[in-house]
Design goal:
The chain is α/β, with parallel strands linked by helices. The chain contains 15 helices and twelve strands. The chain folds into two domains: 170 residues, Alpha-Beta Complex (Aspartate Aminotransferase, domain 1); 236 residues, Type I PLP-dependent aspartate aminotransferase-like (Major domain) (Aspartate Aminotransferase, domain 2, 3-Layer(aba) Sandwich), CATH 3.40.640.
Amino acid sequence: MADRLTLQVRNVRPSATLAIHELSDALIKEGRKVYRLGLGQSPFPVPPSVVQALRDHAHEKDYLPVRGLPALREAIADHVLRNTGVNYSPGLVQTGPGSKELIFLTQLILDVEVLLPSPSWVSYQPQAKLAGRELSWLATRRADYWNLRPEVLEAHCVKGPKRPRLLILNYPNNPTGATLDEAALIELAAVARAHGVLVISDEIYGLVDHEGTHATLSKYYHEGTIVSTGISKWCGAGGWRLGALLFPEELRWLADAMAVTASETFSSVSAPIQYAGTVAYQGGPEIDEYLRHSRRIMRALGRSCASALAGCGLVVNRPRGGFYLFPSATPLTEGLKTRGIETSEALCNQLLADTGVALLPGSVFGRPPDELTFRLSYVDFDGHAALQGSMATAADLDEDFLKTYCPRVVDAMAAMVAWFPKLAQ
């Protein structure tokens, strides 16, 4: 049979984030000590009220509406209004088994050129390939915190002013930890509107903005912006697989097409998860406190990691959201080259072999293979214990706190700080 079958999809590798997670598991089972800084999974537990809601609705077994449970869609719309001031109709909210699936289906439905800032999350590019879409990378610079500049978007759009385009914009950003402030969003909105660029504003890390000041592009380009959200990052529920897209009235036709496509693919999200997700999105004092302390921990830990790596010769920007750093070992290029390390993949492979620190190379995020960048996800710690520790003190979270509650991340930084200077000499 195999000789009569051909693959419709070729040259698509498994997700790099999931691959490093599985590799780390395998190495640990072999008895290796591994610092798991590869997979971007929230270290914090799902809030107790949300867990209880899942228990309470474990008996729910029926298919729910394709767009999602009405109460859940209303809670998501209220959540976005409460946190960004932008109003969406619950009827134009589409839920799905993770925002990842919904972003892929959007690319599948639309005949568009997909635009991605470089670097971007590992799955956007393979999704465009799976959907058969043309993809264009948009240049960014470390000096701009790897953020997309409006003049870069403008320069690309004028090359083919009538081409339909979809820009996927993620902030706070995976892999860089950077975010976009209101001034930057206003400038990007003006360019997108002028050229009719449809935007998926992937705000999955919006509530993990370290200062709690996340702004949304849809406030300035509402008619052309689809907001993506989910409970994986701010609610610690990645494995629960619940995401959503919010469409403006002007894109009702696309929301309707999405619902049709969903009905023929995943049908609906697991019923118990939808009921629990409703409680998560409704929020309340417990979840507000949970978010305040999780941001507080990530802010302190991110700054500590950035400072440590800068001290050993790497170039790294201080993170502003999420739980990522995107350092560059470019200043150490010549020394690394003499050790046979000339690509970001070789760098990460050697670092894992020598120190047990698992990272992802910049090349899987759309950066040149010979650029010595990598993503570090500082999440290898007990999030429950850290939350309890943060709630027990009003003092700033200092290095002693991090050593007590985030020891594996602190030890991983120490291993890297010792490794880089030796290998780059």
